[in-house]
Specification:
single chain, 539 residues, alpha/beta, 6-stranded mixed β-sheet, 48% helix
């Protein structure tokens, strides 16, 4: 076989036709191989260029947000705020800056030290009682007589212990800080002039003061116990540890940034359910330029109430428009259980999506009239709806197929009877009256209210997601409003994971501490192992 690399130009004329054909075939094969290699390189270069373009755009966006935060911090307009608003804004600012710096550091090329945004190392500163839970440790205090001889003067003989009485009281040792020291030995060979030392254990935040346990405690106190940072600062000070609220806020911001990959994976898990619940609740958002608050919304999406593996994900948005659920639910298809808010109409108009409305909302229209003694019709409506709920209670523990069968046999006749009764009553009440509006609500949304009769996985109401909104209602009473858009997004990230962990019966502190401990060494391909529905404590 001819070697195309060894043959010279003057030798080509001496080749016979078969040798020329062989040479041409070899050259064509080489050209084809090089073309494939060039195409692969071009594809790889284009992909790298797109990745670099996306990263540069992200870095530019984060850098702009950092600059805007600094402008807000030193702007004169912040003087319009009250002392409470300014305090919360300063906390939020510290958390936002730490979060953005952590994201910026993650986007920097590996090995680059420029603008890594590594957080600075913090200075070291120092009626009838129920039975007590059996898992609590017991600390025994023995109480015995000083003299165990018989107290009778005529006897005085040693007595025999014949039993004991035990009383239990609940005690507590307040949260106790301690310094965790990692001592890494150095081993040297004097002959070879070599030294061996184990590397430091990986941490979520390099050179950071808190351990994963303290990070988890700070975040749990903020997002589960709804304790503002200034209260945490006061509590820590009682233990002799100085943790300024800005420091605590920075820890919270860094933690939220590190949990973003888990949030994205958890969002995909929640949207993997073909039955979703959705709801939204208003939350005050601080407007630093105006020195007052404006209304924002926390949206919630939860897997179906009958799912074996529950989960809820939150999405903080500046408004209540239909564009927010439309954007969040891109690519999802199934049945969405919602109230009759018109903002969902555009989202549910897409092919592959069905609407199931909430029977509890329809019932509330009649309940308001019943409590006000405004209409005897309302009492009858409530009674008829109660019959349906009794059937749902019986079907709660059944499979979807069995539940659907029970609904068809028992609920459907009552449902059709209710529909006929509602239409009859509507003809007998004047337009514009309160009872007419209550009747119209059910009749106008009858098809969506009837969805539970065609799918055993669809519940009759949206109470499941409303229960997942309760932590936000409790939080509003403590922190009153969200400090910034970034703070709201961070709260949605953390609360999505913690609330879902509670749905699975996990202790939020144990879950988050373990996640923060394992996160630095967890492979991206196995990030799902840290999600609440799949988590198993490594310890």
């Amino acid at each position: 076989m001819l070697d195309p690399h060894a043959i010279k130009a003057q030798d080509i004329s001496a080749l016979n036709p078969s040798e020329l054909a062989s040479l041409a075939g070899q050259l064509l094969a080489q050209i084809n191989e090089q073309s494939k290699h060039i195409a692969e390189q071009t594809k790889r270069i284009n992909a790298d260029a797109q990745a670099i373009k996306w990263r540069d755009a992200k870095i530019e966006s984060i850098t702009f947000q950092l600059a805007r935060l600094k402008a807000w911090k030193f702007g004169a307009k912040t003087e319009r705020m009250s002392a409470q608003q300014r305090s919360l804004f300063e906390e939020t600012l510290a958390a936002d800056q730490a979060s953005l710096k952590a994201q910026l550091a993650a986007l920097q090329p590996s090995g680059s030290s420029q603008d890594r945004g590594t957080p600075d190392k913090q200075p070291r500163r120092q009626p009838k009682r129920e039975a007590l839970a059996p898992h609590l440790p017991r600390v025994d205090t023995r109480v015995e007589p000083e003299n165990t001889n018989c107290p009778s003067p005529e006897c005085g003989q040693p007595m025999v212990r014949v039993g004991e009485d035990i009383s239990e009281r609940l005690d507590i040792v307040p949260a106790q800080f301690f310094v965790q020291r990692q001592i890494r030995g150095k081993w040297a060979c004097r002959c070879c002039q070599l030294m061996v030392q184990e590397p430091a254990a990986p941490q979520v935040f390099d050179n950071a003061l808190p351990t994963p346990g303290l990070q988890a405690h700070t975040v749990i106190s903020r997002f589960c116990d709804h304790m503002p940072y200034y209260r945490q600062e006061q509590i820590n000070a009682r233990s002799g540890v100085h943790t300024p609220r800005s420091t605590l806020a920075a820890w919270g911001g860094q933690t939220g940034a590190q949990l973003l990959p888990l949030y994205d994976a958890h969002r995909a898990f929640v949207l993997g359910s073909r039955v979703l619940h959705a709801d939204e609740t208003p939350i005050g958002l601080l407007d630093p330029g105006a020195g007052k608050t404006k209304k924002a919304y926390m949206w919630a999406y939860a897997r179906g109430a009958f799912e074996d593996m529950p989960g809820v994900v939150y999405d903080f948005c500046e408004g209540r428009g239909g564009k927010y659920p439309h954007e969040f639910l891109k690519g999802w298809s199934g049945t969405l259980v919602v109230d009759a808010y018109a903002g969902y109409d555009a989202t549910l108009s897409l092919e592959g999506r069905r609407t199931a409305n909430c029977l509890a909302h329809a019932r509330r229209k009649f309940d308001e009239l019943f409590k006000a003694n405004a209409s005897p019709v309302a009492a009858q409506a409530i009674q008829r709806i109660a019959w349906l709920y009794r059937i749902e209670s019986d079907a709660k523990g059944l499979s979807c197929e069995q539940r659907l069968q029970m609904r068809q046999e028992r609920s459907k006749p009552l449902w059709e009877e209710l529909h006929a009764w509602l239409r009859l009553e509507r003809t007998q009440v004047p337009d514009g009256s309160a009872i007419a509006k209550a009747l119209d609500y059910s009749l106008n949304h009858w098809q969506a209210l009837s969805e539970f009769l065609s799918d055993g996985a669809v519940p009759v109401d949206n109470n499941w997601i409303e229960n997942q909104m309760r932590p936000w209602g409790l939080g509003r009473k403590n922190w009153l409003f969200i400090g910034s858009q970034l703070a709201g997004e961070r709260a949605a990230v953390v609360m999505s994971l913690l609330q879902s962990a509670k749905l699975h019966g996990h202790d939020p502190f144990a879950y988050l501490k373990d996640v923060l401990t394992r996160l630095p060494t967890q492979l991206n391909s196995r990030i799902e192992e840290l999600l609440p529905h799949a988590w198993q404590c490594a310890g």
